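Chapter review: from sequence to fold.
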Amino acid sequence: ETDVTMLAKQGILSNEDKEAIIAGLTSIRNDIDSGALQFDDEAEDIHSFVEAELISRIGDAGKRLHTGRSRNDQVALDMRLYTRDELTQTDELLKGLLKVILRIMKENTETYMPGFTHLQKAQPITVAHHFGAYFEMFSRDRGRIADIYKRMNYCPLGAGALAGTTYPLDREYTASLLGFTGATANSIDSVSDRDYLIEFLSAMSTIMMHLSRFSEEIIIWNSNEYIMPQKKNPDIAELVRGKTGRVYGALMSLLTTMKGLPLAYNKDMQEDKELTFDAIDTTKGCILLFTGMLDTMSFNKDVMEKSAMAGFTNATDAADYLVNHGVPFRDAHGIIGQIVLYCIDKGISIDEMSLEELKAICPVFESDIYDAISLKTCVEKRLTKGAPSPAAMKEAIAKYEEYLGE
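The token string follows.
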């Protein structure tokens, strides 16, 4: 309809033909929507099917629908319109996931848990801090989607088969009617470009990688009893982790299809459809499922706190205590090493040692050591930007709220 409007504006079609074609197309769309009109499997493709149907309904005027365009630029347009819509939907789903992550962060700025390096408990953090890392990841994903949208939002209609057309088309007018930023700049590139799909598949692969990392952690947490989802088996997390390979596969497949193609359009490019459709459905489904899982998740707060204690996550702070009391840094670490070995031997955590036991290893310790190595102190002292202290997290949460409010 957009194209017909432009053709009439340029005097290529009469107003009478324009009205007849638009009325015919509208009736076809309504009949397809209601199920009154079924797609004919004998037809070569959807374009020739619609054109034949239009001619049978409105006569000769229907034959003028195809003026100044080719199937190549039509398919290129369809795929861009579809992708643009899917980019928007994916972005909305990511926004929904970020809202759930933010809610969990706000509720857990003082829910202590162990922070890990190499799957070993390293330092005490909070659930808010840990989830904040994923907030950053998924907001970068939204940024990538916005970039792709900006770059791909140009209209290929009017490029013809590859060399434009002799009709005086107004490509910019068509582009604006369809909500594009403008018309594509080169007619050969218009019909042979699949960069925007490769970029979208790449962005979805990254989203899936982020979801998969998060899933892996939930599976580990579940087995270690730090966090308990509704049932013991983290089914959704395992499914999401498994589906990631499918999306990677689609990206590699399209990259491989495109790598040897000369300009302009080649039939090989039809391989872009099936895998892209599957990857989009997979990614959207995974974001939605994962969001629901997080939203209903509950935390075993006391178990997590105990886990942080038992993991000697406060050992660094005990070393800092000694350094602040004049013990050289190297010596302090040696002393803490002895303390940890002592605790492992006794099956206790550092804060369960008596002052006598601590002093026996190093006389510098005084009773204020217990406050210095409490999880609360360990977390609260980490005030640098991006650190786990409630003060630093409050700043991050305010920034995230503003970001989601946009």
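Two observations follow directly from the output. The mean pLDDT is 93. The chain has 17 helices and six strands.
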